[in-house]
Amino acid sequence: MTTSTAQTTTGYEGGIAALYDLIHQGKGKDYAEEAAQLAALVTARNPGARTLLDVACGTGVHLSHLARHFSGVEGVELSEDMLAIARRRNPGTAIHHADMRDFALDGRFDAVICMFSSIGHMAGQTELDAAISRFAAHLNPGGVVVVEPWWFPRTFTPGYVGAAVVEAEGRTISRVSHSRLEGDATRIDVHYLVAQPGRGIEHLTESHLITLFTQEAYEEAFRRAGLDVTFTPGGPSGRGLFTGTAPR
């Protein structure tokens, strides 16, 4: 049996993109239930909503379930490897290769969502404002923006260690992460060991810098984009949800 040397990435690329869903579903993430809850949240604010854009849609699992609740769904994703997986998973669905800070699509939507704390990859208030402004610019009148934030400075736990072991698709996958404070952001380092019979053990690592915006910083970005904003604690990952509504 052989063990490979570590391959490191700073984004959701290569082999790590392929592991993404296996890990989170193995940890109990219920994409179907989350999609149903998102649909209920959107339609409570915007009854009759029919179209939705998922920004930073990742590998497109949410999209595949949201398509059951909305007549038209599209996605935006920056990682080319995740984009390829999302397109294979959602044939016939328009999924655009674009950056949330400056994307400009032809269509407008009744809802725009950005989940799993992807917004935390914005580096500072200027980028946060730009992203929320782009979300708002793609709304129909009365449309809804739903954003799942990263931790706030007051709720982040420096030194946090997360761990999971998953068996899926003939592989045993372990994931261990360590989070620390780096300036006004979280530096999270993640290590994966992927073992497969007859193929040995592969070691993959990734590192992300995720900004610790305050609740007030998010709310100000929504207001600058012309959205009426509320924050609800809890949400899919316990970090809460911001919901913004455009004027009609």
Keywords, please?
single chain; 248 residues; alpha/beta; Rossmann fold; S-adenosyl-L-methionine-dependent methyltransferases; 2 domains; 7-stranded mixed beta sheet; 5-stranded mixed beta sheet; 6 helices; 12 strands; 35% strand
CATH architecture of the largest domain: 3-Layer(aba) Sandwich
CATH class of the largest domain: Alpha Beta
Uncertain spans: 1-10
Numbering strands along the chain, what is their spatial order in the largest sheet? 4-3-2-5-6-12-11
Counting H and I runs of at least 4 residues, what is the number of helices?
Answer: 6
Give me the count of strands.
Answer: 12
Order of helices and strands: EHHEHEHEEHEEEEEHEE
Percentage of residues assigned to helices: 25-40%
Oligomer: single chain
End-to-end CA span: 63 Å
> What value does the average pLDDT take?
93
Q: How many structural domains does the protein architecture include?
A: 2
The CATH superfamily label of the largest domain reads Vaccinia Virus protein VP39
CATH topology of the largest domain: Rossmann fold
Q: What kind of sheet is the major sheet?
A: 7 strands, mixed
